[in-house]
Amino acid sequence: MFFASMVGIHVFVTGGIGGVHRHGEQTMDISSDLTELGRTPVAVISAGVKSILDIPRTLEYLETQGVCVAAYKTNEFPAFFTERSGCKVHCRVDTPDDCARLIDANLKLKLGSGILIAVPIPKEHSASGGLIESSIQIALREARDKNITGNAETPFLLAKVNELTGGASLASNIALVKNNALVGAKIAVALAQLKEHSNRGDAE
C-alpha cells in the first residue's frame, strides 16, 4: 500500500485484509494492515476481513484509525468466505462511479487515511456460513492446543478451515479474488475517467 501510494496508484486489490484476531483484547494481536490503512491514502478493494478474525472489533479499530469503510452494493459488511457478517456499514457504494467519487473526495481532502471498499463474494461462490464458522471454531481450538500464535496462526487457520470444509473455502477464496480484481479494475477506470474530466474542466 505504501509503495502504491508513493507512485500514485490509488486503487489496491487484495483478497481480504487482516484485522483484530479473535481474543485480540487479550493478545493484542492486530494486523498492521489496519494501521497502514489509517495512514496511507489508498482505496483497498477486498472481500472484507477474513472470517477467522474478529470482524466487529476490526471495524471498530478501523473507525479509530479514521478509515472510511464502504460496502459495495450492500448495507452489510461481508465476511470473506460468505456475503454476510451481521455487521452493518455506514457507507454504501453501488457503482464504480460511486467508488471513484469517494476516492477522489478522500484524496482532495488530503485526509491521509485510506478507504476500505468491501465487496461481497458472488452468491454462487459463497460458502455456508454455518460450515465456515464451525470449522473456524475447531481450527481455533486446535491452534490453542498446539500453541500456534502470532504470524503462524493465520496460515494455520486458513489451511485447517480448507481441510475441514473439503476445499470449499479455497474455491471460495479463488473466486472472491477474481471478483475483487474485476470490481477493482472497473473502479480504477472510473477514477481515471473522473480525473481526466476534472483536468479538462480545469484547463478550460
UniProtKB/TrEMBL annotation:
<dbReference type="InterPro" id="IPR022830">
    <property type="entry name" value="Indigdn_synthA-like"/>
</dbReference>
<keyword id="KW-0326">Glycosidase</keyword>
<dbReference type="GO" id="GO:0046872">
    <property type="term" value="F:metal ion binding"/>
</dbReference>
<dbReference type="InterPro" id="IPR007342">
    <property type="entry name" value="PsuG"/>
</dbReference>
<protein>
    <recommendedName>
        <fullName>Pseudouridine-5'-phosphate glycosidase</fullName>
    </recommendedName>
</protein>
<keyword id="KW-0479">Metal-binding</keyword>
<keyword id="KW-0378">Hydrolase</keyword>
<dbReference type="Pfam" id="PF04227">
    <property type="entry name" value="Indigoidine_A"/>
</dbReference>
<keyword id="KW-0456">Lyase</keyword>
<dbReference type="GO" id="GO:0004730">
    <property type="term" value="F:pseudouridylate synthase activity"/>
</dbReference>
<keyword id="KW-0464">Manganese</keyword>
<dbReference type="GO" id="GO:0016798">
    <property type="term" value="F:hydrolase activity, acting on glycosyl bonds"/>
</dbReference>
